[in-house]
Amino acid sequence: MTFKKIALGTAAVLTVATAATFALPRHVTIERSATIEAAPNAVIALAASNTGYQSFIPYRDLDPNLKVDMFGPSSGVGSGFFFESKDGAGQQTVAAVTSDQVTFDLDLG
């Protein structure tokens, strides 16, 4: 194989890979669910609370040095926290609370 063929092949692969990234969505929605043996209003209250959410935050086990700084009201819309871990930093804010769901805005920078 000549240098020219290798260069053209590499350029073609890079062009296709670059073009493929523009086909990906700009925003992604992720939904998770779990069954918990507790009253729904108790779970909603924990999830919508800064301190309540910290009691079951899944990342504490992965990074014991996780840093969390809470902001806003102690619970409800607008409450949230900044976090910094070995894997990155960002913030999570309660965006909406209903009788059966808590919606968070998550910014990973």
In words, what does this structure look like?
It is built from three helices and four strands; from the N terminus they run αααββββ. It has helices spanning 3-21, 40-47, 50-54, and strands at 67-71, 80-85, 88-98, 101-107. The longest helix has 19 residues, at 3-21. The N and C termini lie far apart (44 Å).
Please summarize the sheet with the most strands.
4 strands, antiparallel
N-to-C CA distance: 44 Å
Total helical elements: 3
Oligomeric state, counting identical vs distinct chains: single chain
**Mean pLDDT, as a whole number?**
87
The low-confidence parts are: none
Strand-residue proportion:
25-35%
**Compute the gyration radius: what is it?**
21 Å
Shape: elongated
What are the main properties of this structure?
109 residues, alpha+beta, elongated
Layout of strands and helices, then pairs:
Layout: H1 3-21, H2 40-47, H3 50-54, E1 67-71, E2 80-85, E3 88-98, E4 101-107
Antiparallel strand pairs: 1-2, 2-3, 3-4
Short characterization:
This protein has helices at residues 3-21, 40-47, 50-54, and strands spanning 67-71, 80-85, 88-98, 101-107.
